[in-house]
What does this fold into?
Amino acid sequence: MKQIVVAENLTKHYGDFPALKGVSFHISEGECFGLLGHNGAGKSTTLRMLYGLARVESGQLRLFDQPISLTPPAIKQYLGVVPQEDNLDPDLPVLENLITYARLFGIGRVQALEKSLEMLRFMGLDSKEDSQIDTLSGGQKRRLVIARALLNSPRLLILDEPTTGLDPQGRHLVWQKLRGLKAEGVTMVLTTHYMEEAAQLCDRLVIMHEGRVLTEGTPAELISQHVLPFVIEIRLPLDAIPIDIGDRVRAFGGEALPVMDGLFLYAREGNRLWQQIGDWGLPQHSCFLRPSSLEDVFLRLTGRGTEP
Amino acid sequence: MTGAFRVLNRHWQVFARTWLHNLMFNVAEPLLYLSAMGFGLGVMVGRIEGVTYLEFIAPGMVALSAMYSATFECTYGTFLRLHYQKTLQAILAGPVTAGEVIAGELLYGMFKSVLFGVVILIVVSTLGLVPAASAVFIPLFLILPGAVFSILAVCYTAIIRNIDQLNYYITLAIMPFFLFGGLYFPVGNLPDWVQQLNWLNPLYHSIEVCRSLALGKISPQLWKHVAVLAAMILVLARLPLRLMKKRLLT
It folds into this structure.
């Protein structure tokens, strides 16, 4: 498979603050690649390096087989960028926003109009052609930014938190559109701190923390590598949980992980653990059994949950 | 450089929607000055350097309008596009360089400067205040001060973080340019040291050339003013990009 992005040991400082401390990953043609992490993990900095708003400080970045220190126009020509903030042009109405941006790519006037109308239809915004930007809802603005990123039929679509701040309907609508693009073979890289989003969209992902990549793999691989398949969330304050519960779970062959103010119990056999916890002094109505997810991998690796 | 014109195209699209408001603002102010000073002060002054007071100050209004247009576009306009609207960052994510984005800002400032200078020129000509045919060279000349004021404004905008700081530039640079540039009285009336300082005042050079062209007082002396403005452009040309890169790129 052809590599669209190869990043090796990327570093970046903002003043004295190390934003990236040696980040490596690669993205193959046609895949959807995710960067997961808290705010400040280095996700946006990494993306800004891809789309030419940040310079590579040290390490190596290759885009479309070319070495990059600051992404040049010739490569930006192939990129579609959805930045974290909706930087639509408030001085222009919806359709004009798209036409003007398309013209920036050297697309001719007639074709720019056609393509803009096509993208408005695709993103379900065709009734908004003449609207002013500030009259759009958060979800509509986000979809318009995505429409703008697709005008030049990009070979790599870069999405920085595509659904942050959207309501559930808005989020699902964006996911549906992104899955459609993926099916058409568009290579994508996205950042998110929604685990569900990563699980829904990403073929492969990295979890980033404080400027480093902690782990890499498919969602299923990450779950099987880092956590046991079932989890019981204990929804009681820590001081209401019997003190010996950690030892009991370990003796059972599972694991206990404090998460913020509560405790998560992991086990290979979830149902059998579920039958046990009553005897250990945990009422079932305060507990919740579910299969482990990326969220558990994330909590475990990024230190919000630590071994007791 | 095609990138710069693609950036400029964005600004034109916006201009095509806002030109009427722009026109009102940019035409109203010089006309207010012209009428207040012309009628109020003109009565007392009588003739000055062989022309009526209105004829004396009318070319200055052209230079003033040109200065304000470039200045406001490349201070408030640029600041909003950089910090509030993030339009410059959006454009930079497209297939252009930071240099082309900044060139687009400067070209837009120059465009508006020349345009609104010309608008005022047409107005004062219509009022019969421009006696000489050599005034037809004013639009061409206005490119120079337009570039100087755009460059200065973008440089200042690049070094500030808060929009209120733009007031310092208006009060401490633009106002002295305006007050001491020889718009309402001959600069010869000013103390010698102010006259020396005026060589650094781009509006002074702009007024001198506009007035000479409008009144038909052509002399080789004019080339000095043109040369100073051209020198300012050459010296400062690279500065906007160098300062703005720190804002646009990390």
